[in-house]
């Protein structure tokens, strides 16, 4: 793949483990505290509204892929939050990023030119696991707060390890931190503070 972007995948063994929260906090930590140019992409089947209403449509994404003018057109579909994290968010109900392998390769190749880090948020038991996670240099399996779900996360960790032989898998336990994410006490999705900063230092760009 062209470009120097580091692709980092986030997934888990079941829903509700805080995968999206951890991925967002990790991305915001890199963009705000390390001044990295970071893009977050969700592969949920339904478009996530956790970052606000979407800007782009499936037609916009289709035009980018068909035109072959990835870098320039993709910039028009990307927005930025107050922490400097950029994201692709769509106004469709169903996520249009569930693409075939050829179109995914085109998309990721162009994204790798424009960003330092690209975060891929892949839901547990998703069909996109096979298509998306092998692009990642690092894959973070989020274990969540509940010990009862750790067996499913262990299964996912083993699966990811076998699926992505060239990737480095990491286990992330979503502990709440007494200290907040930023010095100004801004709480982000459960105040993933020291744990996320440690992860960003461990697998930063």
Descriptive notes:
With 205 residues, the chain is α/β, with parallel strands linked by helices. The chain contains seven helices and seven strands. It has helices at 19-33, 58-67, 70-75, 101-114, 128-132, 150-163, 194-202, and strands at residues 6-12, 38-42, 78-80, 86-88, 117-121, 138-142, 168-172. It has a seven-stranded mixed beta sheet with strand order 3-4-2-5-1-6-7, sandwiched between helices. α1 (19-33) crosses α7 (194-202). It is globular, with a radius of gyration of 16 Å. The two termini are 16 Å apart.
Summary of the model, kept short:
The protein has helices at residues 19-33, 58-67, 70-75, 101-114, 128-132, 150-163, 194-202, and strands at residues 6-12, 38-42, 78-80, 86-88, 117-121, 138-142, 168-172. By secondary structure, the chain is of the alpha/beta class.
Write the layout of secondary structure elements.
Layout: E1 6-12, H1 19-33, E2 38-42, H2 58-67, H3 70-75, E3 78-80, E4 86-88, H4 101-114, E5 117-121, H5 128-132, E6 138-142, H6 150-163, E7 168-172, H7 194-202
Parallel strand pairs: 1-5, 1-6, 2-4, 2-5, 6-7
Antiparallel strand pairs: 3-4
Number of helices: 7
- The termini sit apart by 16 Å
Q: How helical, in percent, are the residues?
A: 25-40%
List low-confidence stretches: none
Which terms would index this structure?
globular; 7 strands; 7 helices; seven-stranded mixed sheet; alpha/beta; 205 residues
